[in-house]
């Protein structure tokens, strides 16, 4: 399943790259540097942080501690004990960690400034932080804190222990309509919430749909997200980012596009991939890919020995995978018969043990107004 291509050139020749390739079949580079406090000037840029340069506890007690004692790492100084690697990308590593403050496991995305393109560090990373800090939805990975040092940025977030949707598809060959409906419904609710909050994802794909211990969807990786003012008309975007097989025809053709409609197209690709166990379009040749997406999805020929996908599900996929302006809106999707049957009830999530204590702490913290220090990033 060719789904790893995530580099697109804009009309101006600008190249954007996907920094999260945790499920790519390509061998990813690992960060080679040890994130110690000699990284210099660790700065908390989370909503709860002061935004000021913070010295490590080891450094502040240097006069009393034995000389041979190791300095605390940046993460240890902030109350996080790093554990195993969950995934790696070209210039980022995601690790499991334990938070002494929240008394639970968290995920830490460690981004190397040296290995990251300047466009990502200066443009897309601040956008990602701006986006995730305002999103609080049960089907979106919860963002906790950002810490910036001279050489790295650490993003601390909720951990989802169930892997991702792509791995589930590969393990099961395809996803039954009832389960696909639950996941599609949760994804629809979460993305609709994002749009209502003025955030578009722009890189929706099966790899970016994580699962918690109760099999609930947790959308992650807002590296290409865009935040906009909903009170103003949204200008068409010229940033052609995302993954080729999940991209709508307007992006593939380099035409300025409406980002929320692009998210809806990607959701249609996700639904097709879940129920059929394969991508609807072949991304090996760009010219062929453009022709395919303009023509619409071609479903596998039915045989008695092959999986059966209902006509109602196929009809919904066709409604979504249409060029603009004929693409289905959220209102159209929610009125669809298949969606009503399989997806509408999925808004009631199953209880998960992954982050029960974390959620309790966050609810308590919501009542405490925090200083906004993101402008200093």
List the main descriptive attributes of the protein structure presented here.
377 residues; alpha+beta; Phosphorylase Kinase, domain 1; Transferase(Phosphotransferase), domain 1; 2 domains; seven-stranded antiparallel beta sheet; two-stranded antiparallel ribbon; 13 strands; globular; disordered N terminus; disordered C terminus
Low-pLDDT segments: 1-38, 46-63, 364-377
What topology, given as strand order, has the largest sheet? 4-3-8-9-7-6-5
Order of helices and strands: EEEEHHEEEHEEHHEEEEHHHHHHH
Q: Assign the structural class, choosing from mainly alpha, mainly beta, alpha/beta, alpha+beta, or little secondary structure.
A: alpha+beta
CATH topology of the largest domain: Transferase(Phosphotransferase), domain 1
Roughly what percent helix? 25-40%
Largest sheet: 7 strands, antiparallel
**What number is the mean pLDDT?**
79
Question: How many helical elements?
Answer: 12
**CATH homologous superfamily caption of the largest domain:** Transferase(Phosphotransferase) domain 1
**Cα Rg:** 21 Å
Strand content: 15-25%
Top CATH class of the largest domain: Mainly Alpha
> What number of structural domains do the residues give?
2
**Known CATH architecture of the largest domain:** Orthogonal Bundle
Number of strands: 13
Tell me the overall shape.
globular
Report how far the terminal alpha carbons are from each other: 38 Å
Compact description:
By secondary structure, the chain is an alpha+beta fold. The chain has helices at 57-60, 74-77, 118-132, 165-172, 177-196, 249-252, 259-276, 286-295, 311-320, 330-335, 337-342, 356-366, and strands spanning 8-9, 15-16, 42-44, 53-54, 80-88, 92-99, 104-112, 143-148, 152-157, 199-200, 209-211, 217-219, 226-227.
